[in-house]
Write a structure and sequence with these properties.
Layout (H helix, E strand, L loop, with lengths): L9 H19 E11 L2 H8 L1 H18 L6 E6 L2 E6 L2 H19 L10 E12 L4 E2 L1 H12 L5 E4 H4 L4 H4 L2 E8 L6 E7 L10 E4 L4 E4 L5 E5 L3 E2 L2 E2 L3 E2 L5 H4 L7 E6 L2 E6 L5 E3 L2 E2 L5 E4 L4 E4 L3 E6 L22
Parallel strand pairs: 4-6, 11-14
Antiparallel strand pairs: 1-3, 1-4, 2-3, 4-5, 6-8, 7-8, 9-10, 9-21, 11-15, 12-13, 15-16, 16-19, 17-18, 17-20, 20-21
Helix pairs in contact: 2-3, 3-4
Amino acid sequence: MQFDPATLSMTEIIRLQNLLSQELSRRFEISAALGFTDIAGSTAYFARFGDEAGRQLQQLHIDLLEQCLPAHGGRIVDTAGDGAFTVWPGAAAAAEAMTSLLHRISVENEHRARDHQLTLRIGIHWGRVLSDGVQVTGDAVNLCARIATSADPGQIRLSRDLFQELGIAHRLLCRPIGPVELKGVGRSVELMGLEWRDPSRFPTAVLVRETGQVIPMPAQDIISFGRLEIIEGMSANDIVLALPDPAATRQISRWHFELRRRSTGYSLRAVSSQLTQVDGRPVPHGEEVPVKPGSTVELASVMTLQFVGGQGHDGPVIDDTTHYARPRLA
C-alpha cells in the first residue's frame, strides 16, 4: 500500500513528526566524546613550501592519529583539508588518545627541522549526537570544531561537559581557561586546558627574576629565547627577553638559546657565544644540557630565568586564568 502524505491532516502530520523524532532519538541518539584536530599554520606552510610538502604534513597528521585510535576505542569520522574529526565512547579514552597523539608528534618532531614540524590545535567535547555507526552529526559536533579552532598551537582544549565526565586523575591535569567567545556559537563557553606534558619534567612557565615577569611556555617542540622581537615582519623569538635597562637588554643576544623537547624533558641548546649558564654551569655555544622545573638559566650576567612547573613543583603555580606576559608564537 502506497503512503501518500498529501492525504494527511495537520494533526496527523504533527503526530507523525513526533513519532519519527522519538524513533530517531531511540535508535540513533547517543552520548559520545568528540574530537577535532587541526594543523596550526598550515596555510602559511603550503604557501612557503608548496603543495607536496603540505600534503606530506597532512598525511603525517592522519597517520599518527590513526596509530592512537585503536587502543582507546576511537575512530576517524571524517577528514577534510588540515583537520580530522574523531569519536570515542568515553571521555577518558578521548583524553588519553589526544595525549598519546601529541607525545607521538613530539617524538616525530625530534627528527624534523623547526620549519617542518607538525603542530596541532585540539578540541574535545562530550555531548549528544546522532550516529548510525558511520556518520556523526549534531550541534555538539559544531561546538567541538569551534573549541579546536580556539586552541593555541600544541594545546588540548576541552569543554566543561567533557571535564565532568573525566575521573579524578585526568581532572587534576586540567586548568581553567575561563569563558571563551567561540565564533558561530553566539555565547561564551567555559573551557579547560588539558596539560599533556609531565609537569615534573616539563616546565610550564619561565620567571624573569629581575622583573618578576612570568611567561607561559608555548606548547612547541622547539622554543627560542632572545631579545630580538621581529625580523623582516615575522616573529624572531618565541619568548622575547627584555629588561628595564636598555643597555642591559643589549647584553642578551638576539637569539640566545632554545629549548628542544625530548621524550625525557627539555634540553637547552646555546645558540649564542654570550655567556649562558644552567644551574651555575656554563653551556658553550652549540652544546645541550637538560632543563627541568626549578632550573635557573643566567644570561650574559644580566638576566636570570627560573623554569617553573605546575602544582607541587618548584616555583609558582601557573594556570591559564592568570594574566601573565604572553610569549611570541611563531
